[in-house]
Specification:
Layout (H helix, E strand, L loop, with lengths): L2 H15 L14 H4 L4 H15 L14 H11 L2
Helix pairs in contact: 1-3, 1-4
């Protein structure tokens, strides 16, 4: 998967976790918890959905790196096989 495909996958998983959010309009560089109004459980669910879809696990210590759409996509892209 390339960066754009992963970015779209992340947006799709945001839609699953927060269906009321228009994920296509989210700024790729803004903290997802703030702009998509995700609480800690929602964010953890998002990370788990992305891991299930990509095989890339994100340990909690790396959460600061994956706070935004771009950060999540870059993280997964760098680690995807």
């Amino acid at each position: 998967m390339n960066f754009e495909e992963i970015l779209e996958l992340v947006r799709d998983r945001v839609r699953q976790v927060a269906p009321e959010v228009e994920a296509s309009k989210l700024d790729a560089d803004v903290d997802l918890r703030r702009c998509a109004d995700l609480d800690s459980l929602d964010f953890q669910t998002l990370v788990e959905l992305i891991a299930a879809a990509t095989g890339v696990e994100v340990p909690e210590r790396d959460y600061p790196q994956v706070r935004s759409l771009r950060g999540m996509a870059e993280y997964v892209c760098a680690r995807a096989g």
